[in-house]
Specification:
By secondary structure, this protein is α/β, with parallel strands linked by helices. The chain is 52% helix and 13% strand. Strand 1, helix 1 and strand 2 form a beta-alpha-beta unit.
Length: 229
C-alpha cells in the first residue's frame, strides 16, 4: 500500500455551518472511498483542507501538505477536485511540477483517477503563462514552501500544541463561538477574531498578541471539534 495524503477545498465563509458540515462529510467520505477502492490500495495518512475563499499563500492545509511530503516522503496525493482549486493556473502548474519532481503520484477524485505525465505537462503550462503570472506564481510557491517549513517546526515533538491546558481550551472554544456564522449576518474574519481575543486579554502560547493567521491555523487544525460545537 502506498502512503497518501488527501486534499480538498470547502466553500467560502458566507456559507452556513450546516452546509460546511455537509461538504466536509461528503468530501472526506469520497476521498476515503477512493483510496480504499483504488486497485493498488492507497494508505490514507491524513486529509488536509482549506477555505476556498482564502488567498493561496494563506492556505494552511496546502502548506501542511507540502511539509508532510517533504518530511514523510509521501508517495501519492489525492485531490478531490484538482482543477476546481481557487488558485491561478500558473500556481497550479507550478505546484504540480513541484510534486512531480518529488515522484509524487497525483490522483483526482472528480476526474476519476490517476493523472498521467503524458496528459498533464505542468512545466509546459507554466511557459504558456505571461511573464507577470510566471513571476507571481513563483513568488507564491516560494511563500507556500516557507510557510510549510514554519508549520513543521511548530508541530515538531517536544512542543505541546495549543489547547492542552484548561485556559487554552477555553480560548479555543471562544474562537469557535466567534467564528460561528450568526443568522442573516457575515461570519467574523480571522483578523477580527484576533482583535477581540486581544481585547479580552487572552494570550498566545508564547504570551504574545493574537494575529489573524494564527487564529486561522488553530481553527482549521481543530476543525472537526469546531464543526461539532
Amino acid at each position: 500500500m502506498a502512503p497518501a495524503i488527501a486534499y480538498f477545498e470547502i466553500a467560502g465563509q458566507d456559507d452556513t455551518d450546516r452546509c460546511l458540515r455537509t461538504q466536509l462529510r461528503h468530501h472526506q467520505n469520497e476521498l476515503e472511498k477512493y483510496c480504499l477502492n483504488y486497485p493498488l490500495r492507497l494508505e490514507l495518512q491524513s486529509i488536509e483542507s482549506d477555505d476556498g475563499s482564502c488567498r493561496a499563500t494563506e492556505r494552511l492545509g496546502l502548506a501542511r501538505l507540502l511539509g508532510k511530503i517533504t518530511r514523510d516522503r509521501t508517495e501519492a496525493v489525492v485531490f478531490y477536485d484538482l482543477f476546481g482549486l481557487g488558485i491561478s493556473d500558473a500556481l497550479l502548474a507550478r505546484l504540480m511540477a513541484w510534486l512531480r519532481d518529488r515522484n509524487v503520484l497525483l490522483h483526482n477524485v472528480v476526474s476519476g483517477g490517476w493523472l498521467r505525465d503524458d496528459r498533464y505537462r505542468w512545466k509546459e503550462e507554466i511557459l504558456k503563462c505571461s511573464p507577470q503570472h510566471r513571476r507571481s506564481s513563483l513568488r507564491e510557491m516560494r511563500q507556500l514552501i516557507s510557510f510549510s517549513k514554519t508549520l513543521l517546526k511548530a508541530d515538531s515533538p517536544g512542543r505541546p500544541r495549543f489547547g492542552c491546558t484548561p485556559q487554552e481550551q477555553e480560548t479555543l472554544e471562544r474562537m469557535a463561538a466567534l467564528r460561528r456564522k450568526p443568522p442573516k449576518a457575515k461570519r467574523l474574519s480571522y483578523d477580527k477574531i484576533a482583535e477581540i481575543l486581544n481585547q479580552e486579554n487572552r494570550r498566545t502560547q508564547q504570551g504574545g498578541p493574537w494575529k489573524g493567521r494564527t487564529v486561522r491555523e488553530l481553527i482549521q487544525r481543530y476543525r472537526d471539534d469546531y464543526q461539532r460545537t
